[in-house]
Design brief:
membrane, about 160 residues, transmembrane helix, UbiA_prenyltransferase, 6 helices, UBIAD1, about 75% helix
């Protein structure tokens, strides 16, 4: 099976049209090596249970960063974006309290995570609304494209009110 590379110039500004497959492979390689070097002291200094939690959160973050752009093209970028930022919040909470809390409705960090989710949705929706015309030309189906300009703006305002 062969991969066919798309060499057409795009209006999508995600990668600014300045990178190549070779450079992307180097980014991924550098990120992986950097993460491993950061995880070594965590493994040697702390209990294995803490290392596992840090490793799980790191893997979630790494996968989220890779999946965002492809998901953006099919109106799912917001879900990856939310997962990425909420997992960051839970990781920071774990790093300070040594407690894993994932959507325990009675816990304050869960309520705070919902506030963060609405805030992050507003930010990404604002970006999608701003790029509506360019994304439509590039056939990127964001939430803003699916809703149209008028309802995209209404959605943005409703997120602001929440």
């Amino acid at each position: 099976m062969y991969l066919k590379l798309d060499t057409a110039v795009t209006v999508d500004k995600t990668l600014f049209g300045l990178t190549s497959i070779k450079v992307l492979k180097r980014y991924i390689w550098f990120s992986t090596i950097s993460i491993c070097f950061i995880l070594i002291p965590v493994y040697t200094k702390y209990h294995f249970d803490i290392f596992k939690v840090v490793l799980y959160f790191t893997i979630i973050q790494f996968i989220g960063s890779i999946l965002y752009t492809p998901a953006k093209y099919v109106a799912c970028g917001q879900f990856i974006f939310l997962g990425f930022h909420v997992s960051t919040l839970y990781f920071f909470y774990f790093s300070q309290c040594q407690e894993i809390v994932i959507f325990d409705i009675g816990h304050p960090i869960t309520l705070f995570s919902f506030l963060i989710m609405f805030s992050m949705l507003q930010v990404i929706q604002g970006n999608y609304h701003r790029d509506h015309d360019d994304d439509k030309k590039a056939r990127i189906y964001t939430i803003a494209i699916l809703l149209g300009k008028k309802f995209s703006l209404y959605y943005f305002y409703s997120l602001f009110i929440m």
